[in-house]
From TrEMBL:
It comes from Paenibacillus apiarius. InterPro entries: CggR_N (IPR048715), NagB/RpiA_transferase-like (IPR037171), SorC_transcr_regulators (IPR051054), Sugar-bd_dom_put (IPR007324), WH-like_DNA-bd_sf (IPR036388), WH_DNA-bd_sf (IPR036390). It comes from the Bacteria. Coiled coil: none annotated. The keyword Chaperone does not apply. Residues 92-338 form the Sugar-binding domain. This is Sugar-binding domain-containing protein. Pfam families: CggR_N, Sugar-bind. Keywords: DNA-binding, Transcription, Transcription regulation.
Amino acid sequence: MRDWLEIQKRLLPELIELLKKRYTILHQIMLSESIGRRTLATSLQMTERVLRAETDLLKAQGLIETDSTGMRISEEGRQLVKQLEPFMGELLGMRQLEESIRQAFGLKQVIVVPGNSDVSPAVKQELGQAACKALNSAMGKEDVVAVTGGSTLAAMADQLTSSSPLKGIWFVPARGGLGESLEHQANTIASTMAKRLGAQYRLLHVPDLLSEEAYQSLKQEPNIQDILQVIRQARIVVHGIGDALVMAKRRSVDDATVQQLVEAGALAEAFGYYFDRDGRVVHTMLTLGLRLEDISRTEVVIAVAGGKSKGEAITAVLRSGHEDILVIDEAAAEEVVNQCGLDVPSGRLEL
């Protein structure tokens, strides 16, 4: 396929560019279910005039439908996108990015989806879909799955499906609840995932950030000890990756601690730990739940993150060496490649 793509690139570069553009438009409309032209133009960083010409053509071909609420992909358009996905992954260079990152960090699998979730909410939805596939492939019949919080994992939870109930699987939060919107908390995500799969769940009703006194007291509670034992038996961990200072702000960390994070060079946060550029832990939150030693023993660790802005943070966490599977978007993947100075195989086509 790559030889054929290279021939196309040399003889008909304008055709490949056009195919990429129209596939991207169809793909974004499919992810959004219904979207207005102005919103789509902003998401794709395209002028409304150019977008109007393309969507008029797609409508004439029966690939999209329009009404007063916006544009929707037709069933014929949906089938076309699905058929094109493997080809477009090669054409857009996703497979080459995946292999470069996989080899650099010794990962079992890397999944790269097109786009930049910093500027397109639809890309975050696709990250969630890709993470669902990775989790479904990894789960056995009687697994314990621990999940963290965040908007990306919330998007993932909303898209999990199963053809039959998975009653032998337990979902648990990796740690206590973050002081943010309820739908982004680990407890909510664990229960949502379980309900969508017909699985079971346990919750950890403690704050994410604890004082030393509260930590020591809660650690002695029999009910807390019971759920912690279940959490630490997790065979699979699914987690997001955050920018260190953004996460510190969300946790309302005091100014002195924020200054310590800055001085220590903290770039990333994952499962309550803060990592520097080299993947070293430079700060640990006092929290109940999974510890780093538990994660080191976990059989499958799946990281899900996206957006160009998270490139440094993702690289830092990858350098810690705990990940097995990475689900990432194109913009973040390119930043990881740049951060590490990786060579992308020549099959990646720059259009």
